[in-house]
Amino acid sequence: MVLNQASLKRDGVQDYVSLRATAVILTLYTLFILGFFLVTPEVTYDVWKSLFSSLLMKAFTLLALVCIAVHTKIGLWQVLTDYVKNAALRGVLQFLLYTLAFGYVAVGLFVLWGV
């Protein structure tokens, strides 16, 4: 059997792997931030600013933002497909919620990189 690996279509396996991978990255990011709060005696603006001035931290935060968007997109598609039977309403809800997720990433990008 020949498989087309260049296809842009999603399938269940890709969604499954994407959800699990994004969940792992988001868990690592959450644990890092929790660890930062636990080991830092006093979190001030200067401490917080110095944490996020690192290029590695900016990249990790950007990765977490993109993972939130991917995780949200797949999760919303699954939930809306299961519970909203009207195709027109489901399309409108998907558009609005995907736009909100994109806006979240865009605002995070502007705040993070100070654009």
Automatic annotation (TrEMBL):
Q: Which residues cross the membrane?
A: 21-39, 59-80, 92-113
Which superkingdom, per the lineage?
Bacteria
Cofactors demanded by this protein: heme
Q: Which InterPro entries match?
A: SQR/QFR_C/D, Succ_DH_anchor, SuccDH_FuR_B_TM-su
> Which UniProt keywords are present, listed alphabetically?
Cell inner membrane, Cell membrane, Electron transport, Heme, Iron, Membrane, Metal-binding, Transmembrane, Transmembrane helix, Transport, Tricarboxylic acid cycle
Pathway listed for it is: Carbohydrate metabolism; tricarboxylic acid cycle
State where heme binds.
71
Cofactor binding, note field: The heme is bound between the two transmembrane subunits.
Bilayer disposition of the protein: Multi-pass membrane protein
The record's listing under Pfam families reads: Sdh_cyt (PF01127)
Can you name this protein? Succinate dehydrogenase hydrophobic membrane anchor subunit
Where does this protein come from, organism-wise?
Answer: Rheinheimera mesophila
